[in-house]
């Protein structure tokens, strides 16, 4: 534990049980801004550490599945769906969408927002349902997927947001 998550820009750290580089502070009543936060402080809040670990596991599974490629229902005209395949590049910089014999590359840095459920309706010309997840790109075009469950939709949203945010740093 404590190693960097491979592939993430910014070196997101896994929670560590101890901080081996930490040395004791001088016994002074004054603290500087750099003393205010140290690696491992999240361990003071066990729920935050558990949440970080759960997110790490979710991201690991998501990245493995998506690099291999996963089939998704893509919402098209009049709310109909078409089966497509979505792949994450091994360098975690882009998605490749294969649908109807056409391949589209979506750079993760071009994702402006991820809108779960009906929240994406303002960007889509059709009525969406709670199983939909809309990726809004910086050029205001969008791609909507219909997932099998709300949990799957929420996990997809969370993972895409984490990957896109990692590229903004």
From TrEMBL:
InterPro entries: PH-like_dom_sf. It comes from the Eukaryota. Residues 18-34 have a biased composition (Low complexity). Residues 1-42 are annotated as: Disordered. This is Uncharacterized protein.
